[in-house]
Structures are given as structure tokens and as C-alpha cells.
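Ribosome maturation factor RimP
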Amino acid sequence: MKKKSKEVFLEEMIAPVVEATGYELTDLTFEKGGKDWYLVLYIDSAAGISLDDCENVSRKVSEFLDGKDPIEQSYILEVSSPGVDRPLKKDRHFQQCIDQKIAIHLFAPLNGKKDFQGILKAYSPETLSLEIETGEVLELEMSKIAKANRVDELNFKPQPTAE
């Protein structure tokens, strides 16, 4: 099974367990780090995430996976919050960030730049609208976006204006 399809398989299996504990599974990775494999779950809730929340979800997911045993190799289970600069990967992540600051990294340069920050004004599965510091609104195709993240207010770097 390919890594990506294994991640999708695990996410579909684990998401209901996480949701049953009152949290959202925002992302999941299954990767080799050194000699060990890591299954990392990123959870969120409207009230935020504490260490106790991570421990609770880890316990429930661990019990579930021990019973199902869907992973052939040994692995380390980690549960974390997505952080304030969480990656935006799913439609609902982008929808939740409308009128918020985000950072975009493109596969190929647009007007000589690959990185943009601004306010997400609109989103569809095909395109998004990003208002940059100059007031210009960029219409970007989702297929051209390599990575997108929410930007914490303290880390927001306005784009330089041309004068």
C-alpha cells in the first residue's frame, strides 16, 4: 500500500474514533523518521486543545488500533494540536479561514514570487481569492498551490508595497 493511500485509509478509520471523543481530526501523517515509524494525529476543537485532550485521544485511538491492528510495522503514536499556523489541506479548513490571514506557497512563481500572505477573501475547490497588502486580490488556482497555512497575527508579515 502506498504511503499516501495508507494515510487516507488510516484517516478514514481513525476520524470517527476522534470525533466520538468530541474532537476533529484535522490531519494525519504516517512517516518514517530515522529507524522508527510515526503515526501523528492533529486534533482540534472549538475550545482549543490541551495536553489532557491529546492524552485522552491518544488513549482512545491506541485502544482502537490495538484491537484492529491495521498497521503491519511497529510505530509511535503522537497526538498534537495543529498549532496556530495550521496547514490548510481540506475544503473545510479553507472555509473556516475566510477573512483570516493565510500564507500560500506556489509550485511555480507568479510575478516572480512563490510566497504570498494576505487575507483569504473567497474559496472554492478550484480557486481562492487572496487580498495582499497592496489591496490587490489574487485569484489563484488550487492546483498551483503547493502549501497553505493559517497565519498567526503575531507572525503576519505584510507584503512590501511598491512606492
